[in-house]
């Protein structure tokens, strides 16, 4: 019995001991693993800005993949195309239709009255009014009507054709057909002819310079332009463009520079390279008559250091009518005008201004402008002009 008790106790001790050994081991196995720091210590953190990793390849140093260079043939600077003008002979006749379009009212009106059976005082007054309205001017109108009246009375003309013929003759006579209308553009004494173009702003000076250059070149001359209208920068550009179109060199100066020195340089260049005709464009601001006189007078004096100016052309806008005549007079006081260019005759029904200009200024109209086109400038021919003025209507 003692042995049994001792065995039981031993067994209990063994069991308890075994449990004591096994349980702690099991408990240890169930424990979570020791915490692992997920955030590094502060000193190991990268600084927020300064030490942030920076792309170290600046744009300029970025590797550039170079495209293969394709050798292109050199592009030649565009050479301005020099245009070929229409022949000048008979230009006024060719442009007659354009002139007649705006003038025919005058011709129709006059011929209608003149072909009445009996011309009374009222009819003659009507004729006078028509001529004055067409800018012929009061004085010239009175002379024309007086002479016409006399002829009709003596000859007893009544047919439209007869009256037209007499009116034509009187108008041609009023245009003084014997005046010298030639342009002095031929070189002489081993130097170029010098043409100065004057007139108020917008009358068509620069355009006229270009058209004249074109006509001269068409006739086989060499031409050089002097851009002495330094007042309006666009005028210089306009002249340079004309030069390129017609094949003429343009001498220019700085914008706002001294016009006289540009004109001087142009003529000097013309002499040096053996040009036939130098055409000098000038400025025409009229706000200040004294200033204009000084400037134009100076241009002329300075140019004449090379020799006399051969032709001074006054450009007048036909659409300004009698007002234009007053402005024109200022120019004739400053420079010795040798001829008038009457522009924009295509834009007025008052062709009679040609008669008034000649009578009032005592200067022949040498050229007429009949449009903006490069060939719309014609030598003035009284007979062809009167034909156009009276139109086809009879
Ligand atoms: N219809 C018509 N227009 C013309 C004629 N002549 C010139 N013109 C036009 O008139 C305008 C003025 O001409 P410009 O040659 O620039 O005048 P400008 O006198 O040189 O003027 P500034 O340089 O300002 O002094 C332009 O638009 C020309 O095309 C003409 O005979 N008929």
From TrEMBL:
The keyword Disulfide bond does not apply. Residues 364-377 form the SRP54-type proteins GTP-binding domain. One of its GO terms (biological process) is SRP-dependent cotranslational protein targeting to membrane. InterPro entries: AAA+_ATPase (IPR003593), P-loop_NTPase (IPR027417), Signal_recog_particl_SRP54_hlx (IPR013822), SR_rcpt_FtsY (IPR004390), SRP/SRP_N (IPR036225), SRP54_GTPase_dom (IPR000897), SRP54_N_sf (IPR042101). Pfam families: SRP54, SRP54_N. GTP binds at residues 199-206, 281-285, 343-346. SMART domains: AAA (SM00382), SRP54 (SM00962), SRP54_N (SM00963). It is a peripheral membrane protein. It comes from the Bacteria. Keywords: Cell membrane, Cytoplasm, GTP-binding, Hydrolase, Membrane, Nucleotide-binding, Receptor. It catalyses: GTP + H2O = GDP + phosphate + H(+). PROSITE patterns: SRP54. CDD domains: FtsY. It is found in: Cell membrane; Cytoplasm. Its EC number is 3.6.5.4. GO terms for cellular component: cytoplasm; plasma membrane. Involved in targeting and insertion of nascent membrane proteins into the cytoplasmic membrane. Acts as a receptor for the complex formed by the signal recognition particle (SRP) and the ribosome-nascent chain (RNC). PANTHER family: SIGNAL RECOGNITION PARTICLE RECEPTOR SUBUNIT ALPHA (PTHR43134:SF1). Part of the signal recognition particle protein translocation system, which is composed of SRP and FtsY. HAMAP family: FtsY (MF_00920). This is Signal recognition particle receptor FtsY. It comes from Actinoplanes regularis. The gene is ftsY.
